[in-house]
Write the structure tokens for this entry.
Amino acid sequence: MQRELAMLARLVRQGTLELELPGGEVHRFGSGAPLARWRFARPAALRRIAANPELALGETYMRGDWDAPPGELAALLTVLLRNAGEFVQRAGRLRRLLAAALQQWNRVQVSYRNASHHYDLDEWLFRRFLDRDMYYSCAYFTAPDVGLEDAQRAKAEHIAAKLCLQPGQRVLDIGSGWGSLALHLAQHHGVEVTGLTLSRRQLEAAQRAARERGLAERVRFLLQDYREHQGQYDRIVSVGMFEHVGRPFYARFFGQVAACLRPGGVALLHTICRLGPPGTTNAWVRKYIFPGGYSPALSELADGIEHSALKVTDVELLRRHYALTLRAWQARFQQHRAEVAERLGETFCRMWEFYLAASEASFEVGDLGVAQVQLATHIDAVPLTRDYLYRQRSAPQALRRAG
Amino acid sequence: MQRELAMLARLVRQGTLELELPGGEVHRFGSGAPLARWRFARPAALRRIAANPELALGETYMRGDWDAPPGELAALLTVLLRNAGEFVQRAGRLRRLLAAALQQWNRVQVSYRNASHHYDLDEWLFRRFLDRDMYYSCAYFTAPDVGLEDAQRAKAEHIAAKLCLQPGQRVLDIGSGWGSLALHLAQHHGVEVTGLTLSRRQLEAAQRAARERGLAERVRFLLQDYREHQGQYDRIVSVGMFEHVGRPFYARFFGQVAACLRPGGVALLHTICRLGPPGTTNAWVRKYIFPGGYSPALSELADGIEHSALKVTDVELLRRHYALTLRAWQARFQQHRAEVAERLGETFCRMWEFYLAASEASFEVGDLGVAQVQLATHIDAVPLTRDYLYRQRSAPQALRRAG
């Protein structure tokens, strides 16, 4: 224990960390704001964390070895992350290559299995913390205090603007989830959408929603991998799916986008990215949340694109937006925590709240961001300047009616 | 000759190329628009071009071996470039590494020499084709028919907006040229600017301009390499200089920007970039125009940034803007062609017009673009969304007075 306390004394340089042991004993590290409290029920966990922080921090939390005061888990993890220093493993080139080959070799069958691990979880669970439309990706906050429903709508509209949609166009949505974006684009922008998902449960939910909203004629959903699909589209969009592609398949992904895009076509890729150099996926996240997942560095994204026929026409870095989104999801999740614990168990609950809080902390400190990359077959497929994205748009007609 | 004609017949797939030989003989390749005419005074040059297109195309033009109809040189080069096919050499990784090591090893002393090669050319020459303020980089056209003076002013204002300037801030301008941007920012945004240049002639011209405009108290210019400078700044800007840094020094460049930027600081890098994968600099450009020069692929830019403490917060890809800028420069240059030929010789004139036309063609076909990369020390150093760049700005006060 003394060794771990000495290590914390050495590491904590930003803010204050208060470590509380079961008998009431308190150790203080660092100074000033913010103050984070780390409450141990089983102090032995500290040794496991020090030995293998990537995996053990989450696992000891799941077992209830330690806690933060209510509502302060993300803040605690943010302080830990900011001060991680020697804990943050900058993966070397060889380790990265090995990790990519071993952990992200997402062949088609593996991709189906990986998607099922997460997205075939009961829709009931996702309804406990997502917005009404079930967008499961970073929202777009025109201001920090905008509500989640509005921020997700604003994201859909921001993406629609970047796609330069015209009524009647054919749009491919790679990773269509519960159908939220595909249905929005069809309803409010008059386009025909094909959505691809690898989750049977998502497929069924999306098809049901299309029928309920009277859009089944114009939106079709397929249980298909991006590599299995053939078709020609005016526009392609992919939101929150690229994180599952894996480094070895980036060239394949962009080659497929290029192959499915008609001349003059525009695509929009929305993906989590790491704001530092290429790395490896956190071991806990890989084991419990997203097997096969990897968030690219911008250099890796650009490399994949440059070897396709596509041209980058714009890259927006959404930074704090995902921290705000995750905070909103956590708040909703906590409101339903008792129900979720009853249905899925306490360990599942702790896993989920740790996942949301750790993700929030990663965006908070700026290790992760979200890249919206606009791509085109030709440099003139999008307007000369970006003003068109920021003109006061009158709300689309159907939106106004609904409102 | 037959071999070269057969090769052209094989290559030309987009538009029509009409090759005119001295006796009046005309060979037509391809079909449809656009039509480009290639007039040979010495047909033997065609063999040299086929053997070594990178170097010989420009050299044979400089010697007067061939011509395009007046005003159609860039259009001819655009058709040649679009159909280049097997001519466009995709440099392999080894060739790229060797080229970077041999041709872009821009140590400080080499950088001074390289800069002198181009920027110590008589200011008189640059006044023959640049705008009044002497911006020697891609302008920002809010519409294709905006005049060059306005488009360069708009570029300065677009960059000022991206820098989120506050009066009184200290700004470092790496590669300050004839001082245009530094003086604009000081005059219209109330900041103090330090400009670095490696050209003695540019230094003197910029210092003279600062005195004439009564800005010598707030703008200083130094004959210094970016690696020689020490200082702490709120903002850093670099426009059209990064093309001279060289691949081996990207990490050094961004490390230096990070070191000179105060916490909360913002930087804006404006550089030509290649829209395809990493490559090598065209041999003719390297020999006659920019020794040591190299335009990065986005993946190379991102790689350099990721190994520094800086975070990318926005990447705008200006595409056709530089083709429009170069067309305007060429038009002005042609107006003064007789004067330039008299003073600097016919061969120099042909070299210069080929440089402008070949550059225009590269931007026209989308081989090259311009990246404006916004960087920050912290993710919250710039606003949450990019709306602030597109609000109707009332013209800065001093601009209104001047107008």
Summary: The CA atoms of residues 46 and 176 of chain A lie 41 Å apart. Residues 394-403 of chain A have pLDDT under 50 and may be disordered.
